[in-house]
Amino acid sequence: MITAYSEFKKLQSKGIYNIIQCKQGDKDVVLKQFREPYASQAKYKSVLHKEFVYGYKIDSPFVVKYLAEDDVPDYGHVIVAEFVDSRCLAEYLAEEHSDDEKIEIIKGIAEALDSLHQQNLICGVLNPYNILVTRQGDRPLISELRGTYNNTIVEPVDYQKYISPEQKDGTITVDRRTDIYSIGVLMRDMGFTLAYDDVIKKCCSIGRNDRFYDCDELIMALHGGHINSSNNNSAKINPQLLAVLALAAVVAVVVWLGVENYDKVSGLFQSQTSELVQASDSTTSESDKTLAESTPDSSNIQTPAPVANGNDFESIVYSNIKETLDKVYEPYIAERQSGMTLRTYQSRLRPLRSQVKKAYKNIARDLGSITNDERQTFDKLFADYNKQKQEEFATCAELR
């Protein structure tokens, strides 16, 4: 069956594609068509198909939905994608938005990339022209995906500075950190205040091992990166936060080995945390290090006590942490109580770690821009309650 298209309207675009808005029946869609000189060169023919296959599998609120491939009279072979009432990021920036508004855009882009990276995919072609920003709600959307298969394409000059050094020279396999480099260049172009300088520099490091390891690390740094003018500290990754993530990883070992092996696990935890703190390249006070280097102690687990009367922030945040982590741990605890084998437990380790990690990120995102003191309060409450839930999970029933 031939799909009827009508009301064609060419939109302003840059790069390798012409973008045409049209009707597919009564629905608005866009067609992505190769522009010259790409359209007439055989070596580019497979790129469009590969992008569609690549993009069709992605389901993210921050990535334009790829709908189909089709042959359209007068336009040839095209990708059919959803139409979104939007403008490109370059146009959005010309509207002169605040730092807070722009950082929400960057967080959304990082969320989009995270959804790709979790599927072992990368964007590979991030720039201000293929990132759309919706007119309602200013939600960012990635509209072009190239991954690692675009070696035959020479990107337009305007795109070159957003491409990581390793992607340009092709000397090593490209990974998620090439997208993090691109985000850093975007941030540098967006004119953020000095509060975000360290985040930008870390993203834009020539050596990819010096960049953020993944978008989780970047998002967490962005949440803590807005420093009050009265505070001279630069934006850094909080070592306490890295300790929380180490805790989430170690709980897998605790659950598998059983609580009687806590002494063995504690050494592993201390080693992992120490490495993470060093990798954060930040300077902390002795009180910060106390939490980051602490060892789980099954005999001294206490629920963090919020100050309900004197500190509304602490009380509200604690309530949010408790509700969120209770929901994360509930099915795992219930499964253990019902009786499970070690093999079954092994299959639960990775999702538990991932959910704890996401719980932190989601709560931090909901908090928005907060002070350093509030960040430290949040980190400690999260670490303490997560520690309590780990203990509960590790001791609620014997493994079969």
Describe the structure.
- It is globular, with a radius of gyration of 24 Å.
- A hairpin with a 2-residue loop joins strand 2 (17-24) and strand 3.
- With 400 residues, it is of the alpha+beta class.
- 49% of the residues lie in helices and 12% in strands.
- Mean pLDDT is 77; it is low at 225-246 and 248-310.
- It has 14 helices and eight strands.
Describe, in short, the structure shown.
The chain is built from 14 helices and eight strands.
Largest sheet: 5 strands, antiparallel
Low-pLDDT runs of 5+ residues are 225-246, 248-310
Query: What best-fitting shape do the alpha-carbon axes yield?
Result: globular
Structural class: alpha+beta
How many β strands by DSSP?
Answer: 8
Strand order of the largest sheet: 1-2-3-5-4
Using only C-alpha atoms, the radius of gyration works out to 24 Å
Could you state the order of secondary-structure elements as H and E? EEEHEEEHHEEHHHHHHHHHHH
**Total number of helices:** 14
Strand content: 5-15%
Could you report the average pLDDT, rounded to the nearest whole number?
77
What is the helix fraction of residues, given as a range? 40-55%
For the termini, the CA-CA separation is 57 Å
